[in-house]
Amino acid sequence: MDDSIRYLLDLAILLFAAKLFGVAGKKIGIPEVVGEILAGLVVGSAVFGFVKESDFLSKMSEIGVIMLMFEAGLGTNLQELKKSGLKATLIACMGVLVPIALGTLLFMSFYGFDVPGSERFNRGLFIGTIMSATSVSITVAALKELGKLNDRVGTTIVSAAIIDDVIGIIVLTIVTGLSGSAASENVGNVLLKVVLFFAGAIGTGFLVYKGMAWLDRRYSHQRRIPIISLCYCFALAYLAETYFGIADITGAYVAGVVLCNLADRDYIEKRIDISSYMIFAPIFFAGIGLKVSFGAMDTKLIFFSICFVLVALIGKVVGCGGCARLLGFNGKDSLRIGAGMMTRGEVALITAQKGLGVGLLTADFFTAVILLILVSSVITPVILKKLYSGKDPEPQAASGVSGAGQTG
Amino acid sequence: MDDSIRYLLDLAILLFAAKLFGVAGKKIGIPEVVGEILAGLVVGSAVFGFVKESDFLSKMSEIGVIMLMFEAGLGTNLQELKKSGLKATLIACMGVLVPIALGTLLFMSFYGFDVPGSERFNRGLFIGTIMSATSVSITVAALKELGKLNDRVGTTIVSAAIIDDVIGIIVLTIVTGLSGSAASENVGNVLLKVVLFFAGAIGTGFLVYKGMAWLDRRYSHQRRIPIISLCYCFALAYLAETYFGIADITGAYVAGVVLCNLADRDYIEKRIDISSYMIFAPIFFAGIGLKVSFGAMDTKLIFFSICFVLVALIGKVVGCGGCARLLGFNGKDSLRIGAGMMTRGEVALITAQKGLGVGLLTADFFTAVILLILVSSVITPVILKKLYSGKDPEPQAASGVSGAGQTG
Hints:
The structure is a homodimer. The first copy, chain A, has about 400 residues and is mainly alpha-helical. Chain A has helices spanning about 5-25, 30-45, 55-75, 80-110, 120-130, 135-145, 150-180, 185-220, 225-245, 250-260, 265-290, 300-325, 330-340, 345-355, 365-390, 395-405. Chain A has 16 helices and no strands. The first copy, chain A, is globular, with a radius of gyration of 21 Å. The interface of A and B includes residues 55, 56, 248, 277 and 282 of A.
């Protein structure tokens, strides 16, 4: 028996399970993406072990999240984005600072306090840094399901998450720099690369937009329009990550923003959406569940992991939600922003990986990171759905957040 | 610089080049698929070397050809299929026998004649066997482009190619069995597996169809219908190849045929079609060109390769076209059937690989096989387009083929 086409069976099982759990989830009132994540958990090594992670599946799921972010970019309202720009930047900053502070405190309250500059303090700082990276893809999917992706709150969340990604890179560079390891990079270099990427993407983006608009006028509603758009998205995602150290999904989002005013925008989005929901997106969501396996842990680590997850979630709600409230968003919208920024994803894992490389983290903490990704991915859509359902009374939510805002 | 997401750039380059060459090809009158194949040749190691073959790309292109065959199955007219069944079987048989005979003769006229049973004869027989495997995917794409996939001739070609695949497995088993190697399989076993696959696929297919029809009545035009259909396609493709030794694309085609009478058939086909043309299909076609690299060859081998390609092409036209003519198809339709069966693909490569394993083939002959795949993939769509354009006068084509029929 030759098992070289095993990936076909993996795809069949994952797509089927994701659809089944997604639909079942919707029936009992939880968002479809949560069902899809749980599907991965169930067919993966955490429960039945039908499907194992593979290089092919991780590439397929990366394409899935890239398509998702490209769609989010395509759906952008440029006016809203400009308006939300400054506020989103402040929200992103607070969403990085508060978790870092809380994460450092958490680590030291478990493993002993120490002065800034000490190794223990730096390790705490790194735990905080892991908490700081929002991964907005799950939130994007949840908001899309609710039809709230492109309003003021949705745009603020997505742009704050993009800015968060950039701040995250800079913070990571600074913190790993503290370790004094050779693997750490120069902060000036990193800043330069960030500036170069956005300057380059906007500069060439203007030309790309002009070219695509010309093509679109001549060949409106022809296949070449969505296909070339997708090529641009893949290329920018690749360039961002490979040459500028910026996440590929940020590149994909920027590509979407560049093309968001094309006449054929909806035509493109429809085709990306179908490609995405037929294969790539379910593989991405189920892939999150697939990553989980429950290894052996000692009691202290289990307790630390639970606290780590709670602090990471609260840190974002307090930091981002509180900042949004101070910036004039109403209570409910501030909570929505805070909750929307709670999701963590592969960026947290990559950060943890870097910490391992420079000796600021030990491998035991990985389970905590994976737990955070899983829990935040599962509860964020549920909470967002609740916050948008209008069932909970406005004043209560508002007071809850303004309180949180004061704490932050 | 980290190049772990190189596959994104590969996808961007391949999709862009495929679209560019496909559109340019169409402008100068050659079918889009030919342009896409040439695009792979140009960006691949044969010319510029921008993109290298990779495991990921070959899996993506496999999914592309599976989707293509699934669509062909979905588009099947069951009445036509039943009507064409017997004729297609006879055409397939002649399309296997004639190339085997001609291939054996070709080999022996280059490398010396010998009696049946001798090693040289067996080697010749194996060269013929390589020629016998039609790969209908390019023809399917070309006929789809021409809008002629589901008429009588199109259905005959596709079903003959499917039957050809089955006969090919049996012949391959017999011929490798002649080598006396341990790698050869028992013919009875192979026959049993073929029978079991089709019996099983038809039996379970009936249940699958009933289940899907029920789902389709309840959830018409919902995403779950095309997604579950695709899962079924992937699963059957996997089962066919892994457990029954039948090509995955045959499994995909059968899955399509099982679902071809669903009320939502067009809804499913549209979504598979979009997923396919946005990414997978161009990667498949460009991937054919990507495989080509012009290595060092001696004069005799070059000359043999050219003759090998010519004989392989003529063998199918004579065998299939001639048989079709004898079965009552008119001259032009017979030529179309003969030309449609000319395409060879990965099955020929897999066959050659098996020959290498049992010692019936040396590695030098691989270039000839790749040349056959490339030439047949490029010229078949061009010839089919010509044969359907109605420019060449009917009587001439008819006399050409009936002559060929007499030769075969």
